[in-house]
Predict the 3D structure of the following.
Amino acid sequence: MTNKIKSAKLPSGLSRRALIANGGALVVGFSLSDALAQAPEAPPVAAAPPPPLPGSLRVAPMIDAWIRIDAAGKITVLTGKVEIGQGVKTALRQVAAEHLGVPLGSVTLVTADTARTVNEGYTAGSQTLQDSGTAIMHAAAQAREILIKIAADKLGVDAATLKAEDGFVVAADGKRLGLGELVAGDVLKVKAEPATASKLRDPKSYKVIGKSVQRVDIPDKVTGGAAFIQDFRPEGMLHARVVRPPSYGAKLASVDTARIETLPGVRGVIRDGNFLAVIAVREFQAVKAMEQLAAAAKWSEQPTMPEQASFAAWLPAQDKRAIPIRDVKGDAPAPAKTLDLEYFRPYHMHGSIGPSCGVAQFKDGDMTVWACSQGMFPLQDAVAQLIRLPKDKVRCIHLEGSGCYGHNGADDAAADAAYIAFKMPGVPIRVQWMRADEHLWEPYGAGMVMRVKAGIDAKGMLTGWDYEVFTDTHSTRPGGAGSTLVGQSIENGFKLPAPQPAPQPNGSGDRNIIPPYKVANLRLIHNFQPHMKLRVSALRGLGAYSNVFAIESAMDELAAVAGEDPVAFRLKHLVHDARATDCVKLAAEKFGWKAGAVTGRGNGRGQGVAYSRYKGLAGYCAVAVEVEVDQETGRVRLVRAVAAADSGTVVNPDGIKNQIEGGIIQSASWTIHEQVSFDRTRVLSRDWSRYPILRFSETFESVEVHVIDRPGTPFLGTGEASQGPTGAAIANALFHATGQRIRALPFTAPRVKAAIGV
C-alpha cells in the first residue's frame, strides 16, 4: 500500500507527508478526503488586470458617451476636444463615419461642452486624434457590431452575413435596415470593450479615412460667416471692456467713475480691487467709456523685470531646480573633437490675429460661458471657484476663436465675462479684448537658454551628449481661479498656483530634450525656474521648438566639424529608427538636396535640414529649406521649404498638409522676427509695429509637404511636428549662406548684419 501511495499522482496541494506517518504506514481511518480537507489551501492566483481601453475611452468607457443615434437615424458624435484650426471637426467625423459604415454627411459632431460631452481635459500636445480619435474609432466599430447583431436577430440571419454600409445594415439578399430602426432603448448604453474586441475596418477597404474631404469649418471662415466667438451675438447682449493695469503688479490707487457712469449707453462700472470694467449697450460706447475710464485711473508701479539686453545671461543665473531627465553612461571611444555651445530663445507671443473674446450669462442661478478656451472643463472649475458657485451650476461651451496656439487670452476673456455677468444677472455679457490687451496680457511662451556639450570620434560618430535647458514654467493654464487675471485682480482674490514642470514623456520646457540620435553617453538636465518675471504659459509645442532648434543646430555644427554632409550625418545616427530615416530621406529627395553642404559657403544662398519626432512619441517630421541673405542689410529671404511627415494613419491628407504648412510658416515667423520687448517695468510690445510677425510677402515662395501614410498604425498627431525642425533648418541654411553661426533667436536683419560683419 505504501508503495502505491508513493507512486500515485497526488492531487495538487496534497503532500505525502499528510498521508504517510509512523514509518510509512498509512494512518487507519484517515481518508484521502480528510487529508485534502486538512491540507493548507494554495494561495489564490491573482487575476490578470483587464487590458486598458483605447484612447479616451479610459476616462469615459460608455459607448453612448461618444456615439448617439436616434430613431430617425441621426448620428451625433461627441468629443471633449475642440476645434482650434487643426481640422478635427472634419477628421473626427471621418473616423466615425468610416467605422460606423455611414456617409460622412450624416455625422454631426459636438465639441467640448461641459453639459454634453466627455471631459478630455485640454486640447493640446497634438493629442486629439490619439486620444479622442482613437476612442471614437473603437466606440464606432463596437457600436456598428452591436447594431449588426440586433439586425441579425430581426432578420433571422447569421450576423456574419451582414455588413454596415451607407447608413444601413445590409443582408446578402439585399434586405436592409436603417440604423435608426435598430436603436430602440439604450442599446448603445454599454461599456466599451478593449481594443482587441473592436472589429475595425480593414484599411484596404477605407472609403472615408485617407481622403482629402473638404473641411466643414472653412466655408464660414472664408465667406465672412459666423465662424468665431468674435461673431457670436446672443439676444439682449451687452458689451464690456476691462481696463488693465499698465504693468505687472501695478495697484489701482484711485479712480473717479462718476462721470464715466453718465456716458451714452453705459450701464455700469465695476471696480473690485485692481479689477476695473465698464458695460455698455453698444460696443463702440464700451470702447469710448473704457478709454476715458483708463485715463481716469491712477496706478502705482514697481520695476520687477530684468534688463532685456542681458536676459540671456540673466536667465541661467536664477534660482532653479535641476531635474535629471536622463543619465546614461555607455562604451564609446574618447572624443576626437568636442563642441561647447549655447542657444537662446526669447519670449514669444501667441499673436492671435483675433483678440480674445468671451461671452457669459448668469440667469436663474446658472452661469453659462461661451469661450474659445482649449480646456472647457478646467475653465468650468476656474469660473465656479471665481464666482463661488457649485460646479454643476456652471456650463462652458466651446466656440472657435480667431487664433489660438496654446494658452492665450481666451480663458481670461471668458473669466472676465463670467465675473461681470455674475454682477449683472440676466443679460449676456460680451468681453472683447483690444489689441493692446492681447499683446500685453496674454501669457507668453517662456524664454529659454539651451547648452550643449557634445563630442564625436575619429569616424564622426557621437560619443557623448550633455544638454541642459534653463527655463521657467510652460503652463499656467486654468484649473483654478488664480490662473485668471480677474481672479488675481479682485479684492480677496486668488493666488496663482505654484508652477510645476510636466513629467516626461510629454514634458514642458524639457519637451523634446531627448535627442533622437544614437549616442553612447547621454546626460540631460531640465533646470526648472519657477519664479516668473513675465506672465508665461503654454505656447504651441512648449519647449519643443527651442530644444529642437538647439539639438538640430548642434547636429549641423558637429557635421561641419566632422566634415560630413548634414543629411548623411543625421542618417548614420538614425539607423535604429526606420521611420525617422524614411522622413529624412524623403525630405532630402523631394528638396533635391545637394550633398556636400558641410560648411558655410558664404555666398548669400544656403540650404539647411532638420528633423525631429515630436515629444519623441508623436509625429515625425523632417524639413529642408533654402534661404537667401541680403549681404548689405542682413535681411533673410525665405525661398522654399520641403517637408516630409509621418503621422501614422492619415485621416485627411490635406488636413495634415495644412498643419505642417501652418507650422512651417509660424515657425519661420518666430525664427526671423518674433520677440517680446520689455523694460524693467513694462512690456513694450503693445501692437504689431512693436511685435512684428511674418508678412505674406515675406513667407516662403513655395512650401511642399509630403505625407507618409501608414494605414492601420496609431494616430500620432501633427499640429506641432514642424515648428522645431523648421526653425533649426532656417538656422542651418543661414549658416550655409553666410558662413556664420547665429545661436540666438530671432534672426532679425540687424542681428544677421552684425554677425556677417557688414
User: Anything to note?
Assistant: The chain has 17 helices and 26 strands. The radius of gyration is 31 Å. Residues 55-215 form a domain with the Aldehyde Oxidoreductase; domain 4 fold (CATH 3.30.365.10).
